[in-house]
Design brief:
about 190 residues; about 55% helix; globular
Length: about 190
């Protein structure tokens, strides 16, 4: 009897283990990384809800970036931190610079120039943004843009295109929205780097 009881207990235990293994992955929380280093890195990234609180608007554009363009995005992030503004401000600034210059620090483009617009944000010396030397400095240009953004009541709760347009006064105000996802991706990747 002891042998039969023992074999029954082992058989039940075996079925329980086998059933647990089969059911285990179905009940496993796949949202939590099992690698503690990956979990720490993920926790350091800004939350998508913070970066894009309204969701993206319209069709999103995406371009492959050069090292120089990535460095310009990092400079915008650094200047945003220096201005003591949050990740959302960085998304708005980078999205704006994407539309204005594709994150290229543009000098005067001759006949293709829009008046005297230059730099990442295509700011104009004749409109009081600063000297050519200043507006082609990524930190200065970003801080000037952010100063304008801070003066917009409720910018934190506006869609990117509305906030950017209020500062930039573009002839094509809706075009800023197309860069929100790529701008948010850059902020998520580089905010804590």
């Amino acid at each position: 009897m002891n042998t039969m009881l023992r074999n029954s207990v082992l058989a039940i235990a075996g079925l329980t283990v086998a059933g647990g293994l089969a059911a285990g992955p179905l009940n496993h929380d796949t949202t939590t990384p099992t690698n503690p280093i990956a979990a720490a890195v993920q926790a350091d990234k800004p939350d998508t809800g913070t970066l894009i609180p309204h969701g993206v608007q319209g069709t999103q554009s995406h371009i492959d970036l050069t090292d120089e363009q990535i460095d310009n995005a990092k400079a915008i992030i650094a200047a945003t931190k220096k201005a003591d503004m949050n990740e959302r401000a960085a998304v708005i600034a980078i999205g704006t610079a994407f539309q204005e210059s594709k994150l290229e620090n543009l000098g005067h483009l001759g006949a293709r120039n829009d008046h005297d617009s230059q730099g990442l944000f295509q700011q104009r010396p004749s409109s009081g943004w600063g000297t050519v030397e200043q507006i082609t400095d990524p930190e200065y240009a970003t801080l000037a843009f952010l100063k304008g953004l801070k003066q917009v009541d409720g910018w934190q709760n506006m869609p990117l295109t509305v906030a950017a347009q209020t500062v930039q006064v573009s002839a094509f105000p809706d075009h800023y929205a197309q860069w929100e996802q790529q701008a948010a991706d850059l902020v998520a990747a580089h905010w804590n780097s």
